[in-house]
Design brief:
Oligomer: heterodimer
Strand order of the largest sheet of chain A: 2-1-3-4-5
Radius of gyration of chain B: 38 Å
Shape of chain A: globular
Number of strands of chain B: 20
Low-confidence stretches of chain A: none
Helix content of chain B: 40-55%
CATH superfamily of the largest domain in chain B: Ribonuclease H-like superfamily/Ribonuclease H
Order of helices and strands of chain A: EHEHEHEHEH
Low-confidence stretches of chain B: 464-473
Radius of gyration of chain A: 14 Å
Strand order of the largest sheet of chain B: 3-4-5-1-2-14
Largest interface: A-B, 19 and 21 residues
Distance between the termini of chain B: 35 Å
CATH superfamily of chain A: Response regulator
Number of domains of chain A: 1
Strand content of chain A: 15-25%
Number of helices of chain B: 22
Helix content of chain A: 40-55%
Largest sheet of chain A: 5 strands, parallel
Chain lengths: 135, 699
Amino acid sequence: MPGTFRPTQPVARHTVAILCGPPPLARLCETTLERMGLAPRRLSDGADAMRTLETAPPDLLLVLLMGRDPAALALCQAVGQEPAFAGTRLVVVQDSARDIDRRRARALGADAVLPLPLDPGMLDRAIRPLLAVPA
Amino acid sequence: MLTRLSLRLRIFLFFAAMAAGAVVTIGGSLWFGLSRAGGDAISAVMTGGILSVFVVVGMILAVWRLFDENVGRAVERLSSELRARTHGGVARDIDTAPARYLGDLAPAAGAAIETLAATRSKLELSVAEQTRRLEEQTAQLSALLSDIQAGLILCSPAHRVVFYNGPAVALLRDTGRPRLNRSIFDLLREGPVQRTYHRLLDNDELDDAELLVSTTGCGRVIAAHMRLVRGALGLGDVPGYVLTLRDVSADLRLHAERERLLTETLEALRGPAANLRALLDMADDEVAADRSVARDMRRAALELTDIVHETAARHDAREDTWWPMQDVRASHLIDALRGQLGPDGPTIAAPTVFLRLRCDAFALVNLLAEIIDRIVAEGLAQAFTIDVTDDDPGALIVIGWDGEPVGLDTLRALLDDPVPDSPLAVTGREILDFHNTDIWPERRADGRAALVLPLREAERTQPVNLVADRIAERPTVFDFDLLNRVPDDTKIGRGLRELTYVVFDTETTGLDPRGGDEIVQLAAVRVMNGRRVQGEELDLFVNPGRPIPAASTAVHGVTDAMVADAPAIDAVGAKFFRYCEHAVLVAHNAPFDMAFFHKHAGRIGARFEHPVFDTVLLSAILFGQGETHTLDALADRFGVVIPEAERHTAMGDTKATADVFQRMVPMLEARGIDTFDKVLDAMRKNSRLMREMQARVGD
């Protein structure tokens, strides 16, 4: 169950940002990342996320995608397809389990796509190789 | 009585009688002379008499041989040639060489045939012109009908199939194939069809009705519309009917699944929701609340979320759609898109694609045109490429252009609007949802911008462009002469033209079915009402379960690789058995082919006990046993051309055999052999040839 996850090794030297979806989910993501030793920064909306990307692009951006949230999708498109953001890894957590939605997220540039309900262990296992951190 | 014997036999008997007469005469003369002679003369007269017998009989035999070869056989050959031209439709000149000793008979026969051919040619020109116009109209009608998406079957008053189209074949594919003259009750359950038909017959004011009927084989549910056909198409007093078929199994299953999902979700949610509500009420009550309430609330909330997620997962996993879909060629979709964008619209470059897409083509074309128009309006591009590529099991539609990708916000705004000309004012998003798909912008590896739209179902096809190919691809098959035919599966006494024939040929690993040789290819065509039925051919590879010798491959061209993935004889044989239902089988050297099916009757699960006509025996009946009866010789005799590429292929030889057989029928009729049983009798009279053939291959 969520909340029982314990990370295996801290990865604190990387910068991570979360584009918030529903507050409880964002909180769970934040807590999971903190337990991994990361210091995630919460981004309030798409505009905030773009500003952050343009000024100090993080090593990893976690997007909580509920439904077809256009701001979140646009951010995914920017991170995944703009050469300027090539250094930022993109992880999408989305509420749909449809194959076509996973495929869309991958096509837009997501390095990993996770379904809801969010499993913190799965999030850890998805992020670790993207940040080149051994388990 | 003597007239029933063949000409050559009668000539032989004539000369035999002459020889016998000569022997008797010489014998009588010797007896008379000897009775009056005496002494040494007896021995000399006896010697002279015996020598005379041998010389005279020898001379008679020599004259008979010459007479038989140059008169008897020549007359038989000439009469066969005359019959082939008179009844078999052969157009070539008569070969007069074998009849050179018959005086002016052969040239006179040739002149008569020339006159007949000239008269026939004039008539044929006129008929050919009319036929060409009719064929053109038929081809146009077939092309038109092949575009109809609904399954159509026209039945005679006796419930026999008279007409069917490609979608009907596809719709009934798991049940059985519609075939001309096949009972509709082999395909659809009898009760609902009969009830609806008789309800319409009994009601003068009704001509059509809806019915739900399941298929006989796999239990598909078909929504059908029945319309009586009165007084048209040459029908008599009792009307036939047209069935318009639509498979609603998927619709019904989808609705049932949705209903089940809704019911199960509601049932699953009621308990935990009530529990949670009770716990929340208790939490507000300071007296009732204790630490266990919070724990129970957490458990109830988790139960609720589990149910919601499970329901969402089941909903997301569903792949069916109730929205009506059609199979459309990708190239047709692109052509339609170009048409929708208009001559002044953006340029669309698209490579040739051999895919058939399962989609709502009308809605999709409207949506894609709307998207391209918006990209042009945004100033992103003026020229596009459209690639439709295989994405097993579906396809990818990629709209590409040089420039920047379209923004997702632009795309979203466009998808939220109703698509122009769409029924029910559906939005682009709804069209994508109906297809269980989505569309997104990408930057491709070559740096070009693109919009990608996956489709879930597609089928690889062969190149086609011509109208004729379209007909072959989705065949429309009909024979309106069947409308008034009274079904009668007994064959005794039936005219040759009333029978249904299956003409077939096999290619094999070798010539010894008893010694382990097997079939590697089977081809068959149906002949009905004197016509080969287009669209009902069978051409199948068979995995022989053993290597094909190189010498056999050199003859028929079938290699081990070609049959590696083919079904074995049990499956192909069973399919062929169903194909042959109620038919007379026709093959060239039939015992050879039949030996393979008899050998595998156990594996096939059926014995081929159909009546069989053998074109070798029929040729012997028509041309005499002394002639050559190979397929090449018959084809040459009847002017049937076998393209070199098709020679010794199963289908090539099958078509040649069918054409030869069709030319034999009028010749047989002209000889008075015009019914099924008369042909059997005639074949039995050639039993020596039959026994020889059977001895070669076994029964």
